[in-house]
UniProtKB/TrEMBL annotation:
UniProt-recorded Gene Ontology molecular function terms: lyase activity
PROSITE patterns: VOC
Superkingdom to which the source organism belongs: Archaea
Pfam families: Glyoxalase
Domain VOC: 1-123, 145-263
CDD domains cross-referenced by the UniProt entry: PcpA_C_like
InterPro entries linked to this entry: Extradiol_RC_dioxygenase, Glyas_Bleomycin-R_OHBP_Dase, Glyas_Fos-R_dOase_dom, VOC_core
SUPFAM superfamilies: Glyoxalase/Bleomycin resistance protein/Dihydroxybiphenyl dioxygenase
Sorted UniProt keywords: Lyase
UniProt name for this protein: Lactoylglutathione lyase-like lyase
Gene3D superfamilies per the UniProt record, alphabetical: 2,3-Dihydroxybiphenyl 1,2-Dioxygenase, domain 1 (3.10.180.10)
Signal peptide start-end: none
């Protein structure tokens, strides 16, 4: 999941100090080298746990949610962690919506500092976590990867066709206008919910999600997906080298931008596991510009990993 934030310091402090995720990588947007690209996830950056941001800073224009955008990004938590998170979010002065029930599961929603809506699903089938020992959140209560995303579209059918015919999802259920699709592979991030909105196409900017990503084991599988999606009538990019993985991108008819990224080589290709997120990581083709890039990036201090409260 990749979104657009405003102030980089505020963004990183929220996801590390409040949500307890590990700050995995500080690099730059390869398409805009004077903008940071932050990665947050579990202790190892396991696929299915990573949320990333382009923090545009003071020059960023506000976005506006609308059709063709992600409405909610939802994480798993343990069934026994709900009260912990209700207390923790309240202690950090975060407004909470819920708890409510969706498809028999207990859900709470809240916004990050830029207005991106997040949710937590408390369930007894949450996947096992790879806890980050330095997190301010105790191991047993840490976020356990993505549960689902909710996409807002003007018309369910065209997007549903891409999910089912293009990406192998299966329709599972409908409840209160929410159409649930699940990947046959299962695991973290295997659910996509579609909801209809009467809003016009969303405006990209701070506080909006830029794209969502699926995983491919390697470039061979990625090429197979690319050929298949083209056969489905979609326009798909060539493979793009993102250092930590290789990516292809396509936009479905409802307007949502999707990515399919390879599993490797991973975040430790340029930093050891212990060093992840400690220094600015640049791709080889930008290394000669390091001084100029660092001089133009906003000032930033890696967030503290000390607990903010006794919760």
């Amino acid at each position: 999941m990749t979104a657009i934030a405003g102030d980089p310091q505020r963004n990183a402090e929220f996801y590390v100090e409040t949500l307890g995720l590990r700050f995995l990588k500080k690099t730059v947007n390869h398409d805009d080298k004077h903008t940071y690209h932050f990665y947050f996830g579990d202790s190892e950056g396991t696929p299915g746990s990573n949320i990333t941001f382009f923090p545009w800073g003071e020059r960023g224009r506000p976005g506006q949610f609308g059709a063709g955008q992600t409405k909610v990004t939802t994480y798993f938590i343990s069934e026994n962690s709900l009260e912990y998170w209700l207390d923790r979010l309240e202690a950090h002065d975060i407004d909470i919506e819920g708890p409510t029930e969706q498809f028999g599961e207990t859900v709470i929603e809240f916004d990050d500092p830029d207005g991106i809506t997040l949710a937590l699903v408390a369930t007894d089938d949450a996947p096992e976590a790879k806890p980050w020992e330095e997190s301010p959140v105790p191991n047993e209560h840490q976020l356990r990867g993505f549960h689902s995303v909710t996409l807002g579209v003007n018309d369910i059918e065209p997007t549903a066709d891409v999910l089912t015919k293009g990406l192998g999802y299966e329709f599972e259920a409908k409840e209160d206008g929410r159409h649930r699709y699940r990947s046959a592979t299962g695991g973290p991030g295997s659910i996509i919910d579609l909801v209809e909105t009467e809003r016009s196409r969303g405006q990209m900017g701070t506080g909006t999600v830029h794209h969502i990503a699926y995983k491919a084991e390697d470039t061979d599988e990625q090429e197979q997906w690319r050929d298949h999606l083209i056969d489905q009538g979609l326009r798909v990019t060539d493979i793009v080298d993102r250092v930590y993985f290789k990516s292809i991108y396509f936009r479905e008819p409802g307007g949502v931008l999707f990515e399919i990224a390879t599993m490797g080589p991973g975040f430790s290709v340029d930093q050891s596991q212990d060093e992840l997120g400690t220094d600015l990581a640049l791709p080889d083709w930008l290394e000669s510009e390091r001084k100029e890039i660092e001089s133009r990036l906003p000032s930033f201090e890696t967030p503290s990993t000390s607990p903010l409260s006794d919760d």
